[in-house]
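re: ur question from earlier - yeah i can do the single chain one, its not a big deal. heres the input i used so u can compare w yours
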Amino acid sequence: MTQALIVIDVQNDFCPGGALAVPGGDLIVPGINALMAEFPAVILTQDWHPAGHSSFASEHPGKAPLEMIEMPYGPQVLWPDHCIQGSIGAQFHPDLTTDRADLILRKGFNRAIDSYSAFFENDHQTPTGLEGYLRTRGITRLTMVGLATDFCVNYSAVDAAKLGFEVTVRQELCRAIDLNGSLAAAEQGMRTVGVTLA
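and the output i got, formated as tokens:
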């Protein structure tokens, strides 16, 4: 029972037709569903933003989606409005097997700060509570899949490795945004902290 599968943000808005579609985001769903059977624990994360979230370009007059700004906690990509609480876009992809989940962790619900990682908000200090949940269950090895490789998967994997978990990212069950070389940078960063890219 030391292993868990963490399925990151497989939501409608990150799949084709969504507000922040990751190319091929829907293609990983059958493989993720099949992989769930191999793990005693399955955790799903869900981007869960209030309307008017500070990471939305629409909240910054004169700014466009994918532009960078400085926030009090550091650099922030501005995104299209996405995964708004209670919306169709925030729902899990309809084909994702959600009933296998032991835990559904919602993140990004603080209007003032974005939250890519399943472990910390983007200030790298405010915890989501996932670490404590895993520790109390005795889980030490994590396999991560989902969307997007270079943002929420990357941040989650790096944080988990820094916290002392043994982390594997199954790249064939992830898809990337790849914004100005962000995928290559993410892969290098993950390897640097000891994440296994499988």
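The helical segments are 29-36, 130-136, 149-162, 182-192. not sure if urs matches, ping me
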